[in-house]
Please model this.
Amino acid sequence: MALREIRVEGDPILNKACKPVKEMTERVAELIDDMFETMYEGNGCGLAANQVGILKQIIVMDIEDGEQYVLINPEILETEGEVAEFEGCLSVPGMRGKVTRPERVKVRALNEDFEPIEIDADGLLSRCIQHEIDHLHGHLYTERVEGRLYRNDEEIEDEEETEDSAGEAGGEGSETA
Model:
């Protein structure tokens, strides 16, 4: 395993659509391992392959300690509800902003064994899946931010928003993906 460079906002690769993965190879498996290591090093909960410079439809996530997810060629099948919460991103370091997304999502993908899976997700897992799929289509969360971006160390003016973001500043609680 090896750490890979996380591409940051302004790098043109982040605005390109990723291509589907056609087969599981040793190189793809190595990329997945490297992505997990890079994500953990950056204190993130999700990472898309183009964030490390590879235009492949691969997402890795770990929302709760040790529960790893690998989504290859993910496709959103259904969404439900709506919720606005703060997000951050490893490709936009030190910043966060409020984004409205569907509250629940059902997604189909291939796992690390290249087997089909479906995931029904809500909460942080749902948000992370949607955030990372946006990356695969060449979009950053900053395109969806309502209002302005905040520095992670900056207090949010609205007291209600401060309660919503408790535990989110800094690490992946702010969905640094």
User: Anything to note?
Assistant: The radius of gyration is 15 Å. The first helix runs from residue 26 to 41. Residues 99 and 144 are 6 Å apart (CA to CA).
